[in-house]
Amino acid sequence: MQPRTAVPADVPELIRLRAVALDALGVDPGPADAAWREAARAWFLERVGERPDMRCLVVGGAPGEPLLATGMAWVTYHLPSPLWTDGRRGYLDGIVTDAPARGRGHGRRIVDALVAWLDGIGIHYVQLHASADGEPVYRAAGFTVGRYPGMDLVTTQAPAAPPTPPAPSTPPAPAPGS
User: DSSP for 40-83?
Assistant: First the structure.
């Protein structure tokens, strides 16, 4: 099966596969009505389809039917350098194959198609973050450990301020001469 471009009808399955990926990474995706899923629905709807800076590919059924695998690539923008004069880089993310469909090359076909898409739009520097399970797929596709180590910073979100109580209403001032 060759990858195809995702369409809006694939969004429920993209969210399901996102939950599969989170679970594989040791993150509990929570119940079907978890708040992140509605945010993911809006996120995917904004990004699936034909966009000049992003591509979401899927392997599996017709739009709206169960998917076997998915993956995304998008353009990131950085300062120009002598090697990458326009500063553009590609980034792969969300590459996941449903557990029953693993070991059939779906992930590799998605990676190859995304890299080919990036190459076709003139981007020859592609980055990703690999899970332990995904690393062999990426190495087989030619990825190596980056020149610079990745670092993360996670800040805590400030608690929301309590709602301000409504100002007490004051009776209108009497009209002059009343």
Answer: HHHHHHHHSS-BTTEEEEEEESSTTSPEEEEEEEEEEE----SS
pTM for the whole thing? Answer: 0.84
**Are the C-beta atoms of 15 and 40 separated by less than 8 Å?**
yes
- Within 8 A by CB and 6+ apart from 143, the residues are 126, 128, 130
Is the Cα dihedral 119, 123, 124, 128 positive or negative? Answer: negative
**Contact between residue 78 and residue 87 where contact means Cβ atoms under 8 Å apart:** yes
Q: Identify the helix (H) or strand (E) that includes residue 112.
A: helix 106-120
pLDDT digits (tens, 9 = 90+) for 70-117: 999 999 999 999 988 999 999 999 999 999 999 999 999 999 999 999
